[in-house]
Write a structure and sequence with these properties.
Mean pLDDT: 78
Radius of gyration: 23 Å
CATH class of one domain: Mainly Alpha
Helix content: 25-40%
Distance between the termini: 54 Å
CATH architecture of one domain: Orthogonal Bundle
Number of helices: 10
CATH superfamily of one domain: Winged helix-like DNA-binding domain superfamily/Winged helix DNA-binding domain
Strand content: 15-25%
Structural class: alpha/beta
Shape: globular
Length: about 325
């Protein structure tokens, strides 16, 4: 398909170039040679009259013009792809599609387990692939279909969002820690604390003037650190409940501190253009409603391990699966 200026097949190459920030990774994404993609970049630059990618430090960055192209380009290509997979009698549950869900390890272990069980219960062959999150820009670049993060600080990501589920915040200390059982918000924030090293998980501590944390760790490692030190931490109640069974931990009451944490599911407008995508978002919301307020009480903390790339969670054949809380000494 052509217009009088440019082969429209180049739009797929343009999307890859803008998402991957350069011809090398774009060529890998498209399974093409780097010279072929570099030639496409040269033609696209000539067509648009813009460099599209410019040198910045050791890498390449998008020009302001290219930044403005990315979202409408993704929306247009999403519409085209939806047309190509349309069928007159398509059943979303049996479509066999894979959906990338970008979130942190804790939310993956709590929520994706529930989502997989729900999809299995309706006989779906849809696959969920966990995409580890390190920055919200990954989602904006199209590396996942939905993004799930704590609400604080991430309310403007994507085009659409909803509260997926909520759970209480737990303030924890070692049973050997002599810190008082009740603290004011200011007292808590003045104590040595462990906070998540992932900047996307900054929403658990109460807001206020805080001293610098004594340590930063992956969220799943914080309870073990607190149990072995005099540090305090604010964590999701589901996480505290999992580790209190096997570690010397106790709760601290913090007056004025946050009592609930909500998790938002974000998606781009083009994600819900197809009936299968709309069905998937609806099923995710239903799974969140089943979990709301329940935290991670049903999850075996040994059953989940993070992976460096998309990790498909295959739907189980049986629908009467038992997920139990057990000792987690292996963590």
């Amino acid at each position: 398909m052509r217009n009088k200026h440019l082969d429209l097949n180049y739009l797929i190459k343009l999307e890859a170039l803008l998402l991957e920030r350069g011809p090398t990774r774009a060529a890998e994404r498209l399974h093409l040679t780097q010279p072929a993609v570099s030639n496409a970049l040269a033609e696209l630059r000539g067509h648009f009259g813009d460099a599209l990618l410019i040198r910045r430090g050791r890498g390449l960055a998008l020009t302001p013009f290219a930044e403005g192209l990315l979202r409408p380009l993704q929306a247009a290509l999403s519409q085209m792809r939806s047309v190509l997979v349309a069928r007159p009698d398509m059943d979303p549950a049996s479509s066999g599609w894979e959906f990338g869900v970008m979130t942190c390890d804790y939310i993956a272990s709590v929520f994706l387990t529930k989502a997989v069980r729900r999809l299995a219960a309706v006989g779906s062959n849809v696959t969920i692939a966990h995409v580890p999150a390190s920055e919200s820009e990954q989602f904006e670049r199209g590396e996942a279909d939905v993004l799930i993060l704590p609400a604080r600080g991430h309310s403007s990501v994507g085009d659409s969002q909803c509260v997926l589920f909520s759970e209480p915040v737990a303030y924890i200390a070692s049973t050997r820690n002599r810190t008082a059982a009740c603290l004011s918000q200011e007292e808590f924030l003045s104590k040595p604390r462990v906070v998540p090293s992932d900047k996307l998980l900054a929403g658990f501590e109460p807001e206020g003037v805080a001293t610098a944390p004594a340590m930063t760790l992956p969220l799943l490692a914080i309870p073990s650190c607190v149990a072995a030190t005099d540090y305090l931490a604010a964590v999701p109640q589901g996480l505290a409940a999992m580790f209190e069974k096997v570690l010397p931990l106790r709760r601290v009451r913090v007056f004025g501190g946050d009592t609930m944490i909500s998790y938002l599911m974000h998606w781009r407008r083009e994600t819900a253009d197809h009936p299968v995508e709309r069905w998937f978002i609806d099923e995710m919301q239903k799974a969140g409603a089943e979990l709301d307020g329940d935290g991670a009480a049903e999850v075996d903390v040994r059953s989940y391990r993070s992976t460096p790339s998309r990790a498909p969670l295959t739907l189980p054949r049986r629908t009467d699966i038992e997920i139990r809380t057990t000792a987690c000494g292996a963590m």
